[in-house]
Write the structure tokens for this entry.
Amino acid sequence: MSEKRISWIRRGLFIMATFFLCYGITRGEPLVVFVKAVNICLECIGIG
């Protein structure tokens, strides 16, 4: 593939990733991930 085509593919993937990241943040997903991480950590040390 040519360098131009690879460059456009990278730009497109970056824009899509940014969009989905912002979409997840607006849905409140960071809180869900944080709660799951806390539960896993508490289970690992035997408290939860």
Residues 24 and 30 are 8 Å apart (CA to CA). Residues 3-26 form the longest helix (24 residues). The chain has two helices and no strands. The two ends are 52 Å apart (CA to CA).
